[in-house]
Amino acid sequence: MRIVIVDADAMNAKFLTFVLAEAGHREIIHANSVPAALRAVFSAETDLVLLDLALPEMDGIALCQTLRERGYTGPIIFVTQGGTTQDKVRAFARGADDFVQRPFDPGELVARIGAVVRRAQHQARQQASTELRVGDATLSMSDLTFQVGDREPVRLTPTEMQILAHLMQSSGTPVSRKRLIERTWGVDFLHESNRVDVYIRRLREKIEPEPSSPIYVRTVRGVGYVFCPPEKSSSAPPQSRGTCPHRCCRTLGRAPARAGRGVRRSVLQSLSATRAPRHKAPLRQCASTGATRAVAQPSSARARCATGHS
């Protein structure tokens, strides 16, 4: 589980990290400012945010609202010093899932985190139990089909459907191979990282207009994969790699890995197909020796013979 701690106090963050590590959590990120928090939450799929009220740029409640407005749907728990009843009411109104005041019992905090995460996961399963829509893409859980706009639905296997569902639920945010393995097959298969790549290749062969140059399921070098949703009600053909207008590519600041290879290949093929054939100069034979040599001619006269006739 990926947890982001947002706290300007390094000692508080260090203590929280220790408590979470003792409970078995390993992926813990500390952000000490609002910009750092936004980068940490949206740079990869985040399962939980632990938030303090007192931050340098704005109060934690305003940041909580910003996270919700920008599309973060995971649990947010305030872990803070003090806090009035008014603060709690405002925090819950802006999207918080729980409010824990310092000093706290470490065991109680871990229990609260477990309860909030289970509740969030249950809600996510209920929402995705029948149909998942992102942009103009629809994933139907009941009949295992994927459809973009009014195109023909594509039939998927249960495993392909699970992987695509995880990516669509985190649309625009890269999902690591490790996370996909944990959610699809379980922790016992973490050592088989190439398993994900095999299924992603099969998935692309089914849903992508050009599997060698994917536009929906893209590779993020060193991270994993990201789902780039097609725009709604768009009759135009899908955009090529490297020109994705969605948050996934803008957040990363660059096109996904291997972008453009298919484009370069197609350009080279087009150039070789349209290149004019090389003109062969006429040969002249020497009357005395019998040797032959090429005769240079101006381009305007290449199609004419020595007498000037066509």
Largest sheet: 5 strands, parallel
The geometry reads as: elongated
CATH architecture title of the largest domain: Orthogonal Bundle
Count of folded domains: 2
Q: What is the percent of helical residues?
A: 25-40%
Nearest-angstrom radius of gyration? 29 Å
Count of distinct strands: 14
CATH superfamily of the largest domain: Winged helix-like DNA-binding domain superfamily/Winged helix DNA-binding domain
Rounded mean pLDDT is: 79
Count the DSSP helices: 10
Termini Cα gap = 80 Å
CATH class identity of the largest domain:
Mainly Alpha
* Biggest β-sheet: strands ordered side by side in the sheet: 2-1-3-4-5
Q: What's the helix-strand series?
A: EHEHEHEHEHEEEEHEHHEEHHEE
As residue ranges, the low-confidence spans are: 233-243, 250-264, 273-277, 299-310
Q: Supply the helix-strand structural class.
A: alpha/beta
> In the CATH scheme, what's the topology name of the largest domain?
Arc Repressor Mutant, subunit A
Q: What fraction of the residues are assigned to beta strands by DSSP?
A: 15-25%
Tell me what you see in this structure.
It comes from Sphaerobacter thermophilus (strain ATCC 49802 / DSM 20745 / KCCM 41009 / NCIMB 13125 / S 6022). With 310 residues, the chain is an alpha/beta fold. It has 2 domains: 2-127, Response regulator (Rossmann fold), CATH 3.40.50.2300; 131-262, Winged helix-like DNA-binding domain superfamily/Winged helix DNA-binding domain (Arc Repressor Mutant, subunit A, Orthogonal Bundle), CATH 1.10.10.10. Helix content is 38%, strand content 18%. It has helices at residues 10-22, 34-42, 60-69, 85-93, 106-127, 158-169, 177-184, 194-207, 247-252, 261-274, and strands at residues 2-6, 27-31, 48-51, 76-81, 98-102, 131-134, 137-140, 145-148, 154-155, 175-176, 217-220, 224-227, 283-285, 292-294. The strands form 4 sheets. Strands 2-1-3-4-5 form a 5-stranded parallel beta sheet, with helices on both faces. A 4-stranded antiparallel beta sheet has the order 6-7-8-9, covered by helices on one side. A hairpin with a 5-residue loop joins strand 8 (145-148) and strand 9. 26% of the residues are buried. The model is unreliable at 233-243, 250-264, 273-277 and 299-310 (pLDDT under 50).
